[in-house]
Write a structure and sequence with these properties.
With 122 residues, this protein is an alpha+beta fold. Helices cover 34% and strands 22% of the residues. The relative contact order is 0.21. The model has no long low-confidence stretch (mean pLDDT 90). This is SCP2 domain-containing protein.
């Protein structure tokens, strides 16, 4: 993936490597969904970088998904990191308006800190 100013990009790179491992392959069997992440440096909807976490194929790519993802999330860099590392409760972030979700809510509920590699050191 090309360079990015987002702190989230490091975590997504770790995830990309993690999905190539046996633990990552188990994850794709268990979840089997495609997520598009629109991550903005500071403010939702402005200068977003788009990533796809494909838990059907087991890959992370930069750029919009070709087709229809199961769920699309929009959040800021810091909010995404908070959720991915388990420091921020995703439901509370959604209620606060820090996350916007399009698509299947049941698919969105499977996007939890558990799917990220441990330890997620940044």
């Amino acid at each position: 993936m090309d360079s990015s100013s987002l702190k989230s990009a490091q975590l997504l790179e770790q995830m990309r490597l993690h999905l190539a491992t046996d633990a990552g392959k188990e994850l794709t069997k268990k979840v089997g969904l495609v997520y598009q992440l629109n991550i903005a440096p500071k403010k939702l909807g402005i200068d977003e970088e788009i990533y796809v976490v494909d838990l059907k194929k087991g890959e992370v790519t930069k750029g919009p998904y070709q087709g229809k993802p199961d769920a699309t999330f929009s959040f800021t860099d810091n909010d995404f990191l908070g959720i991915a590392t388990g420091k921020t409760n995703p439901q509370m972030a959604f209620i606060r308006g820090a996350i916007k979700i399009k698509g299947s809510i049941s698919a969105a509920q499977k996007f939890t800190p558990d799917i990220f590699p441990k330890p997620a050191k940044l």
